[in-house]
Write a structure and sequence with these properties.
Layout lengths: L2 H7 L5 H9 L3 E3 L16 E3 L2 E2 L7 E6 L30 E2 L7 E8 L2 H8 L7 E7 L7 H6 L16 E6 L2 E6 L6 H8 L4 E9 L2 E2 L9 E3 L2 H6 L4
Parallel strand pairs: 6-10
Antiparallel strand pairs: 1-2, 2-3, 4-6, 4-12, 5-6, 7-9, 7-10, 8-9, 10-11
This protein binds uracil.
The site of uracil (URA) has 8 residues, from α5.
Length: 234
């Protein structure tokens, strides 16, 4: 691929903008030699203003989503893309969230531009376990674990029962819930169905990938290949 297209596809600017970057001599190789728009040079060799380029397509990143942000590109309020470099919104192929978390839910959120990977993670057939920690308005009744695990639970207005889910009681009003689906507001609706109310919700893990404590709310980082593989290990 010609460099001008490669760099424009990474979201650094339109082809016209990027063509100017070449004219201004801002695009070089690792040794500082000026490169030209038509050159075909490996991605890792290219520098823009002396800096390596963003990762090529196939990138996966994890964010510690804070409360108060929606998983949308164009919601009028605060959106998770506001927490990433602005050019990430302009990439082609587009960077998307892997599923969604509600505005009021915090925790592990993945992004990728790899459509096949995204599908493999969110497909109900993949049975990737998502673990949530919930703070509840009322004490647990005691029968929730059995009902959630039954594979018979029906949510309002739905026609298919929920896949079995695992409840772990952490305290009188705190619980950890592991689910393998991603239905709309699933965790909140499950607790609502047993007469409770989720006051705070946090996603701790997706498959074998755990949100590490070093990532503060609002922070993000790229994932290494072994971390992406961990998503499919529970
Ligand atoms: N279940 C919910 O209710 N909300 C989320 O954000 C994720 C799962």
């Amino acid at each position: 691929m010609k460099l001008v297209k490669l760099i424009a596809n990474l979201g650094y600017g339109s082809r016209k903008d990027v063509a100017w970057m070449f004219r201004e001599g801002r695009v070089t190789d690792a040794q500082g030699e000026v490169l030209y728009a038509d050159d075909k040079v490996p991605h890792g060799e290219v520098r823009l203003d002396g800096e390596p380029l963003d990762p090529p397509p196939g990138m996966v990143l994890m964010m510690h989503k804070p409360v108060g942000y929606t998983c949308s590109r164009k919601d009028p309020g605060r959106v998770v893309f506001d927490l990433l470099p602005p050019r990430y919104r302009m990439r082609d192929p587009a960077l998307s969230t892997v599923g969604r978390l509600d505005r009021d839910t915090s925790g592990l959120l993945l992004f990728t531009d790899d459509g096949a990977l995204l599908h493999r993670i969110i497909s109900p057939r993949a049975h990737v376990t998502k673990v949530y920690e919930a703070e509840l308005a009322h004490g647990l009744r005691g029968d929730e674990g059995e009902l959630f695990a039954s594979g018979q639970m029906m949510l309002e207005a739905e026609t298919e029962p929920l896949e079995p889910a695992r409840l772990e009681v952490l305290g009188p009003r705190r619980a950890r819930l592991a689910i393998t689906e991603g239905r709309y507001h699933q965790v909140r609706r499950m607790f609502a169905a047993v007469g409770n109310h989720v006051e705070a919700l946090h996603r701790a893990s997706i498959g074998g990938l755990v949100l590490d404590g070093q990532l503060a709310a609002g922070a993000w980082r790229m994932l290494a290949a072994d971390e992406v593989a961990a998503i499919f290990r529970s």
